[in-house]
Amino acid sequence: MNGVTYxxxxxxxxxxxxxIDDKEYVSAIKEVTELASAAQLRRLFMMxxxxxxxxxxxxxxxxxxDLTMSQDELQAFCLLEIEKLLQSNVKSLRNYAGMPVPNNSxxxxxxxxxxxxxxxYDTVSLTHEYDANIFKLNEEQRVVYDKIIDxxxxxxxxxxxxxxxxxxxxLLPGGKTAHSMFNIPFELTxxxxxxxxxxxxxxxxxRLADLIIWDEAPMxxxxxxxxxxxxxxxxxxxxxxxNKDLPFGRKVVVLGGDFxxxxxxxxxxxxxxxxxxxxxxxxxxxxxxxxxxTKNMRLASGLEQSTxxxxxxxxxxxxxxxxxxxxxxxxxxxxxxxPSNLIIPVLENSVEDIDRxxxxxxxxxxxxxxxxxxxxxxxxxxxYLITDSxxxxxxxxxxxxxxxxxxxxxxxxxxxxxxxxxxxxxxVHIILLRNVDPAGGLCNGTQLVVRDxxxxxxxxxxxxxxNVGDKxxxxxxxxxxxxxxxxxxxxxRQFPVSLSFVMTINKSQxxxxxxxxxxLCRPVFCHGQLYxxxxxxxxRKGLKILLCNEELxxxxxxxxxxxxxxxDKI
Length: 570
Hints:
Blueprint: H1 9-16, H2 22-32, H3 38-51, H4 56-62, H5 71-87, H6 104-107, H7 113-118, H8 123-133, H9 139-153, E1 160-164, H10 178-182, H11 201-208, E2 211-214, H12 222-236, E3 252-257, H13 271-276, E4 288-292, H14 297-300, H15 308-322, E5 328-330, E6 333-337, E7 356-360, H16 363-376, E8 382-385, E9 387-390, H17 406-410, E10 421-424, E11 429-432, E12 447-453, E13 457-462, E14 471-475, E15 477-479, E16 490-494, E17 497-499, E18 502-504, H18 505-508, E19 515-520, H19 529-534, E20 543-547, E21 557-559
Parallel strand pairs: 1-3, 1-4, 2-3, 7-18, 7-19, 19-20
Antiparallel strand pairs: 5-6, 6-21, 8-10, 9-16, 11-12, 11-17, 12-13, 13-14, 15-16
Helix pairs in contact: 3-4
């Protein structure tokens, strides 16, 4: 490896980063010593702890650690948690000569790190921001704002709203995914409960919350909301009368989203199954008040490039596609006629502009184009391979795991899972596939530009979200796919990123781009996909479409999938 001959396969694998041991963490720290600042090294250290083999309780607490705390505070916290782990084995730091012990004067502030972090807001600067932006709300937005704030300020508990628009909660300070915040299991049933104990630190945060905002709600299975409802009643029962006919433990809950967009993903699910797991099919929906936002703010930001009439025409066309009104019926299938000025013979894309992207319906198409673009770029290519292994479990009684070899595992492709082979060059665009450090801007979907390629770390600049310009270092992490189609659990250890010159249509939902090349080598296949793809741009001039499906009868017409019955329940 790299010109060095090793005596054993184990040594060679360790050099390549295939072995999960302390040597990988030490090597990662050494690699970035000359590249990173002190704050960046501390951040990398925390990420290594989170991705390593330390006890789960410590990893869980470290993700809420404030990385701006002093060295003494950081040391006191880490020593305290190590002491707790040792005490579980009837040992103590005092058993080891020369080891420091926690500073008791600093330990008391760590009673609830999660709550401390939630309350770390600069109220002065936020007040100035509020004063500067409150008058920018249009009439519809102001009505929605006033109604929600009135409920929160005057303790009008139990109100449940759906804002028919969008909020982009991960772009808000402190925003995080609902699954991580409420411990919602990925595998849902009608009896699923959120894994938050009534006397836990997270339960204390939930009890103190006055308002819960959940964006992109139509994409989420209704069973997740019902699990949240049960959990909120469980932890709020000592405060409120459980017999009240109100949802979500009488919390004020605001859901946001657009039912024209992609609905919950049900692998191999029928049209009826997908509609029935949408939030507006839930027993909770009868309590919901729908608040409409009809003005498209994404298109409004494109007035500099287009006239008001052009934007209005484009908006009407997109809305008709989303609602299945712009149509031609052929053999009971819904087709959309694509204007000739949007169709191109080849894809045009500048890899220098992060505000541009190619969208495709399937992961296979995305991978093919991403790899093609990387091969076109100048510079030395570095390949990163992964480690796959079957998870220890007693749940495989009906699966013969003996035939599942490493080569088979390497070939598995799942949404949200990094590939077996990751091809990178300096300057390429990548996207995070999981939440690494939400408070630091490293969320699922954060876009980055690669700056350094080492053996055990990747250095990159954040180019999207609220931490644009920050340089971060990413290490390999363990990922277990939640895809229920796979009849066994396996673990993949790889950098949690993928190339982002091209992304799936579903992954692009919620993003705003200046230029979109829509690559349709096959038709869209689920409700809302075409609408999502066409509505990512600020104006019509930023959209180009390539229709290259050999089965197309008419090269200017593409199938559109719309489940109209989902609109009947709004």
